[in-house]
Write a structure and sequence with these properties.
mainly alpha, globular
Length: 162
Amino acid sequence: MDWRCLMFQNNARPKAIFIMWLQNHGRLLTKDRLKRWGLHMDETCVLCQADKETREHLFAECSYANILWNKLSIWAQVHSIVPNTWIQYFQLIIHHSKWKTASAMLLKMMYAEYIHVLWRERNTRIFEGASREHKALAREVVSICYFRADKKVKGLIQNLYF
């Protein structure tokens, strides 16, 4: 698996790494998967209300997710990672995460936490009817990354401005 570099030596929370693992395997229960299992439901994305919810849409094409990722990538200074399609986006994340530099370690952790908070926000909107702005989610990811970072990554984070 070319994405194994995202799993190992990642300081993200274990639940975020698990959700990322499910997402990488295509096992998250998105609405298109549930529809294929025979469940009848509205397939519209609850985050942007604009398109059918698929893994590709939810994590790479959704306008809400793109705003969140753009905020995080500007903060982490990884502007070169701009999602066009799911595969290109995923390959860029993998490529930039393969090294043992502080920025690569931060990107791995940030990506896992991004997937987790986005999935949690989606579920909160569906099951609880509550929602938060992308700014609140971005702040959550930034604070989690800071508190879970090792010494090398924490030094990098302290030089970044949110």
